[in-house]
Amino acid sequence: MTDTTHYRICPLCEACCGLEIKVQDGVVTSIKGDARDVLSQGYICPKAVALKDLHDDPDRLRTPLIKRNGRHVAATWTQAFAEIARRLPPLQAQHGRQAVAVAVGNPTVHKYGLLTYFPKLARALGTRNVFSASSLDQVPKQLACGLMFGHWMTVPLPDITRTQLLLVIGANPLASNGSMWTVPDFRGKAKDLQARGGRLVVIDPRCTETAAVADAHHFIRPGADVFLLAAMVNTLFARQWVRLGAVADWVSGVDAVQQAVAAFTPEAVAARCGMTADTIVELTGELAHTERAAVYGRIGTCTQTFGTLASWLVDVLNILTGHLDVPGGAMFTKAAAFASNTSGASGSGRGVATGRHHSRVSGAPEVMGELPMTCLAEEIETPGTDQVRALITVATNPVISAPNGARLAQALEALDFMVSVDIYLNETTRHADVVLPGVSPLQDEHFDVSFPQLSWRNHARYSRPVLPAEDRPSEWQILLKLAAIVQGHGADVDVNALDDAQFAQDTQRQFGAQAAAVMDATQNLRGPQRLLDVALRTGPYGDAFGLKPDGLTLAKVIAASGSGGMDLGELQPRVPELLRTPSGKIELAPPLLLADLPRAWADLHSKAPDLVIIGRRDVRSNNSWMHNLPTLAKGPFRCTALVHPFDAARLHLTEGALARISNGAGSIEAQVQISTDMMPGVVSLPHGWGHDLPGAQLSLAAQRPGANLNALLDDQARDPLSGNAVLSGVAISMMAMA
Ligand SMILES: Nc1nc2c(c(=O)[nH]1)N[C@H]1C(S)=C(S)[C@@H](COP(=O)(O)OP(=O)(O)OC[C@H]3O[C@@H](n4cnc5c(=O)[nH]c(N)nc54)[C@H](O)[C@@H]3O)O[C@H]1N2
Ligand SMILES: Nc1nc2c(c(=O)[nH]1)N[C@H]1C(S)=C(S)[C@@H](COP(=O)(O)OP(=O)(O)OC[C@H]3O[C@@H](n4cnc5c(=O)[nH]c(N)nc54)[C@H](O)[C@@H]3O)O[C@H]1N2
Ligand code: SF4
Ligand SMILES: [Mo]
After folding, report:
1. Rounded to the nearest whole angstrom, what is the distance from the C-alpha of residue 638 to the centroid of ligand 2?
2. What's the superkingdom here (predicted)?
């Protein structure tokens, strides 16, 4: 018997915890937190253990599938790629590049082969029809930060280990483990904050797990964050509490913001927020008068019609209270690799723009090169030039995760051809003509590309594969092969040779006279590893290919992978060095955002619905795809509708009974759970459920399918600036089932 110990970054959520995994004769025998991990220091949640279930899940696909006569049958990789080469290029030739769309989802960010090679596929397709889960999530925050700081990934986050006041709005890190903020063990860090006399304050329509450990919790009417935040900014000016602190020399647009929020007084917004004007002033005063404080807003503030405005105002508050870019405030990470805010000239740049093209049917503006996921169905359905006729999905399940999945499912069925790069036959991939499964995370190496750009502490960590690879393509090779096929190279192309050729070309372009040295230094590497070595060595801590001999290389980061990874220190002030706005300033008052405030003002006076629905996350679940894993699926049923006792009484709903929840055409049945944690007038139901659709192969999930929240949501409801879907605060009616 051979026992081995391995170290692996958990790929299941943004906390990116370091795991210690024991293997005996090729079988995982234990998964624990790695106490030496520089980022997570031993912390894990129950999902980590389910990595074993995921690896062992008999429903997880091991071979490609091809749909023949309506049924998916196992195929070889050669057959699968041949089928794609036979069917996809002719569609492109006949209908043009826009006719092939691509949709990419959340797990892509946790698989570095997918993340680094997806852009190559998108480029090869040359289509504007690129859709991603970002438009169901965080685009508003990225747009607001992009406009203010000059790059989409330049997003400040609370310096939690040094702050004295943390104001959390529309996030529940105790369940989600953080988002756009890599902060393993939020609970422990919050406790430490409280132990040193600091305060955690939560604003949420539900008294969440995070609110339960907070020093104060305030209910807010769903969707009212823009009003609360604008009134807090208004209060800062009215009370002369504005101070810019360390970034004072770099902020432009303060007067414009003052004027723009002049009408949003606490008194004007209080009723709509479901808060008193006094509370709004008190919250503002506490923020303004605490030396080390930070505001953090997440998905609850994004997935609403004023998502971009709300996200913007979160950081306007951080800036106007002098808390940006100072220890204990809202700070920026400095990642070791792949960060745009560490490359190019520092201090100014091109900034960000949206609307370089628009979606064909709804005219939604492109943001970050993508169109809203909620536009995909109509692009497939609506005849005309550039109609979408074929689709490639990569690790996404929008039939469940996006609003109005029933419409999307119908549209997918009408496609001429669909390919899915996915590990399950699920509600979305059941529509695919060819499914190409990636490897289990335990058989894959890993480096986080995005999350070190958003982490509570600077670090560099790499994971070797835990279990030996099988004889099949890596996910980067799958994507590169697809790219080659659509470029007309055929299914038999040698992807490694193609990768070498592309790398040589890119290196020549990027390094000019130094290209030969770079080629030489990376000659034994391939695929994402080679890209990573270049990114690390040219990054802010890198060895610059020998010019700074003490600097980082991939070899050094790999060498540290058995001992907790490399700690690169606590967050440091980065303004003005990280700014990439054309002005070289923090743009506090981007015209696009100011121009949207009148829409909010008009909405302030519209009548609020009686009953609205919001979402919820549970620590043992993850969006739509982990309900098939035994460790997580056991225990109490989690897809319940939380209803306040007042609402339950007036609607005659009883604990544990089924209720019908409806909105327009959509209607679902969910089990009622009566709870004083809810704000009256607000119902909470988790998303990602509804595993009762035919043709999926999720045997365990199908036993307790749950109700699909997104069946109630309108795919046309979006934040017009970011295109982000409205997933929260949607009007519903609810009645007991006979
Ligand atoms: N109502 C409501 N809807 C929501 C949300 C909400 O809060 N409320 N949240 C939204 C958010 S934040 C997000 S990010 C989206 C997520 O939406 P999606 O990005 O669509 O993510 P999932 O629904 O989790 O689907 C993940 C897919 O990836 C596949 N997969 C898992 N691991 C791998 C792998 O290693 N390789 C490959 N190739 N595939 C893999 C799974 O089988 C599944 O098909 O959902 C959104 N939907
Ligand atoms: N266990 C688990 N962890 C996850 C995921 C998961 O599905 N399960 N998903 C991952 C993903 S993809 C993401 S993006 C992150 C998200 O991470 P978080 O942003 O922390 O997401 P949630 O836990 O849904 O918390 C959102 C909170 O917003 C509140 N809310 C709803 N509407 C409003 C509103 O209008 N205003 C305010 N102020 N609050 C509102 C909800 O009640 C909820 O408590 O979590 C990630 N981590
Ligand atoms: S919090 Fe849980 S799921 Fe997230 S990275 Fe850590 S162990 Fe994995
Ligand atoms: Mo997400």
Report:
1. 15
2. Bacteria
Pair of tokens at residue 393? 């999905």
Q: What per-residue confidence (pLDDT) applies to 666? A: 92
Q: Which residues of the chain have pLDDT under 70?
A: 1
Same domain for 285 and 167: yes
Ligand 1 centroid to residue 106 C-alpha, Å: 5
The CATH number of the domain holding residue 724 is 2.40.40.20
540 lines ligand 1 (CB under 6 A): no
Q: How far apart are CA 473 and CA 464, in angstroms?
A: 17
Q: In angstroms, rounded to a whole number, what is the distance separating the alpha carbons of residues 530 and 484?
A: 19
The 8-class DSSP code of residue 548 comes to S
pLDDT value, residue 1: 64
Assess whether 582 and 652 both reside in one domain.
Answer: no
- Please list every protein residue whose CB sits less than 6 Å from any atom of ligand 2: 13-14, 106, 137, 169-173, 175-177, 179, 203-206, 208, 220, 222-223, 225, 298-301, 304, 614-615, 617-619, 621-623, 728-729
The domain containing residue 581 runs over which residues?
Answer: 139-345+575-599
Asked if residues 15 and 109 have their Cβ atoms less than 8 Å apart, the reply is no
**Measured distance CA(738)–CA(735) in Å, rounded:** 9
Q: State whether 45 and 155 are in the same domain.
A: no
Q: Who surrounds ion ligand 4 at CB < 5 A?
A: 137
**Residues 261-270 pLDDT 10s:** 999 999 999 9
pLDDT at 9: 98
CA distance 63 to 57: 14
Q: In total, how many domains does the chain have?
A: 3
CB of 9 within 6 A of ligand 3: the answer is: no
Q: Are residues 273 and 332 in the same domain?
A: yes
Q: What is the DSSP letter of 438?
A: P
Q: Are residues 220 and 286 in the same domain?
A: yes
Q: Which ligand is nearest to the CA of 441?
A: 1
Atom of ligand 1 nearest to the CA of 626: 24
Burial 563-582 (b: 16+ CB within 10 A, else e): ebbbebeebebbbbebbbbe
DSSP 171: -
Residue 89 CB coordination number (10 Å): 17
Note whether 640 and 707 are within 8 A (CB).
no
Peptide bond into 403 cis (omega under 30): no
The response to whether residue 166 sits with its C-beta less than 6 Å from ligand 3 reads no
User: pTM of the prediction?
Assistant: 0.98
User: Domain check: are 152 and 28 in the same one?
Assistant: no
13 Cβ below 6 A of ligand 3: yes
Q: Could you tell me if the CB of 626 is within 6 A of ligand 3?
A: no
Q: Work out the number of other CB atoms within 10 angstroms of the CB of residue 361.
A: 17
Q: Is 184's C-beta closer than 6 angstroms to any atom of ligand 3?
A: yes
